[in-house]
Amino acid sequence: MTVTLNEIKAAAERIKPYIHRTPVLTNESLNQKVGSQVFMKCENLQKVGAFKFRGASNAVWSLTDEEAERGVVTHSSGNHAQALALAARMHGIPAYIVMPNNAPQVKKDAVAGYGGRITFCEPTLEARETTMDRIRLDTGATVVHPYNNEQVIAGQGTAALELLEDVPDLDVIIAPVGGGGLLSGTSIAAAGIKKGIRVIAAEPELADDAFRSMQAGNIILSVNPKTIADGLLTSLGTLTFPVIQERVEQIVTVSEAGIIDSMKFIWERAKIIIEPSAATVIAVLWEKKIDLAGLKVGVILSGGNVDLNKLPWQ
Amino acid sequence: MTVTLNEIKAAAERIKPYIHRTPVLTNESLNQKVGSQVFMKCENLQKVGAFKFRGASNAVWSLTDEEAERGVVTHSSGNHAQALALAARMHGIPAYIVMPNNAPQVKKDAVAGYGGRITFCEPTLEARETTMDRIRLDTGATVVHPYNNEQVIAGQGTAALELLEDVPDLDVIIAPVGGGGLLSGTSIAAAGIKKGIRVIAAEPELADDAFRSMQAGNIILSVNPKTIADGLLTSLGTLTFPVIQERVEQIVTVSEAGIIDSMKFIWERAKIIIEPSAATVIAVLWEKKIDLAGLKVGVILSGGNVDLNKLPWQ
Questions:
Q1: What is the architecture, at CATH level 2, of domain A5-50+151-301?
Q2: CA–CA distance, A88 with A91 (Å, rounded to integer)
Q3: How far is B239 from chain A (nearest CA, A)?
Q4: Under CATH, which number does the domain A53-149 receive?
Q5: Interface test with B, best of A271, A273, A309 (most B CBs within 10 A)
Q6: The whole model's pTM is what?
Q7: Which residue of B43, B115, B147, B211 has the smallest Cβ count within 10 Å?
Q8: Domain boundaries, given as residue ranges, for chain A
Q9: B45 contacts in chain A (CB < 8 Å)
């Protein structure tokens, strides 16, 4: 299967009973500040606090009965791990989560809280993949990659589908880019629903591997990036990159200060909690590196998982 | 006029073009924690970050053309001042706001930012009322009291109206009580729409004048209360108290720790910013002083205006 609008529509039907239909919020102070009409698709208000629950749910509910019985496995220390654990629990099947032993306690607790069966390993990509492979061979569980997976991409695309149902006359959609699951799903949905709609990606300057990949025409790996936007550290995937190349107009990089200022503004004015990765889409408007004046701009606020005891403006 | 469901419905039509239709959110972690099915009406996501914008808008848009020309006046240092200033600006009429000269700078800035014409006075009730009276006589502006005003009560009732449109089968609604504008409007709307629905109020133990007023059968004034819920410091009004006596089942008082714990839980799990006054309704469920197990409970999250640099768990 190649992901098309039809797969995204099928995903939307499949996961509808399990996900939140998240609200689309507007804020006049934000509009005045940035000079566009902004429509915020609030995936920070999604279950587990991130859009990741859409893709994980679609992957889990796409399994055959036989596959489902053996469960799912992934390696992740982030929102995908929690999302997959909860989606699996809602389906009543096991989720095996490989996490590096240095992952923050709060993330270990969250995954365990959603019923994930955690296996710890050394904090290297090699150890994570070896450990995951071993579990896969032992259990027969299906691997659900955080973004380089067609069911996941289709699931993430359902956020843009809903956004365009609620606000059909958007001129532009902005989504953040890490591994590219959300961005590729968004761009397939947007192009399929509305010819000519512009899709723009937001990426931290300090983790600009997607920007450089677009320039180079091939995937450039992300090496130890140091941005506050900790959901956007990964490299593009072989499934997501070609979609992004074909359908995304441009990747706009944003500064750390722009991310933090945008994040605080949204907390203060819109009264919702967004994580730094989500703030990147606001930062694109905030820093005005491209001209979107007067346009109707949909932004996907990807998540809201932050440590309230360690805020970046403290 | 006595406020009835009809006035609330008329208010809803009148203010519809100006307010946000706020979302009703649910959160599975919260449901599990408290043992009820909770539906959160998010007035923290209302314009100016509080339900107060509903009442202020209804008051402003209920004026005759002649009255409107002369503007509105109030004394307030809280959310009502901002709400009235913005509502007046949207109508293109002046709003005179009397504020105590010791009000926090952030509140002065907010009112000025919404175009309110501020007059400062000594921080006593007498000075505030004298100053307001002088402005009223000078300008002919209409006084809009924060809660002891029928248009305001009708406006505040529209939040419950929308909540019951979205979730018609609620068993209970919980609203916070300060001056009683939101609570009286909520109870009129709820009783009018659904016979037998229970309306319960949340009040801080450290500002329990409404609780004591209900026990005594007459209004007991609030004297220098010291709760973190700074939106609930005022006494009941002559218009709100009789409605509350007639229609509210009981007032449940909550501890400061309950308020802070509930507030942090909502920030962490529901990813929305609520102020301590709004957290009181969650604290009623959290502290389980009354048995609402298994019921469908609507709660009105009254506002989200907090100083992000001074959080109560820091």
A1: 3-Layer(aba) Sandwich (3.40)
A2: 5
A3: 31
A4: 3.40.50.1100
A5: A271
A6: 0.95
A7: B115
A8: 5-50+151-301, 53-149
A9: 25, 270-272
Alpha helices in chain A (DSSP H): 5-15, 28-34, 52-61, 65-70, 79-91, 105-113, 125-139, 150-166, 181-193, 209-216, 240-247, 256-265, 276-287
Per-residue pLDDT 10s for chain B (314 aa) are 589 999 999 999 999 999 999 999 999 999 999 999 999 999 999 999 999 999 999 999 999 999 999 999 999 888 999 999 999 999 999 999 999 998 888 889 999 999 999 999 998 889 999 999 999 999 999 999 999 999 999 999 999 999 999 999 999 999 999 999 999 999 999 999 999 999 999 999 999 999 999 999 999 999 989 999 999 999 999 999 999 999 999 999 999 999 999 999 999 999 999 999 999 999 999 999 899 999 999 999 999 999 998 899 87
Q: In whole angstroms, give the CA distance from residue A222 to residue A225.
A: 7
- C-alpha B142/C-alpha B68 separation (Å) is 8
Q: Which chain A positions have a beta carbon within 8 Å of B311's beta carbon? A: 308
Question: Please, how many CA atoms are within 13 Å of residue A232, restricted to the half-sphere of its CB?
Answer: 33
Asked if B271 lies within 8 A of A26 by C-beta distance, the reply is: no
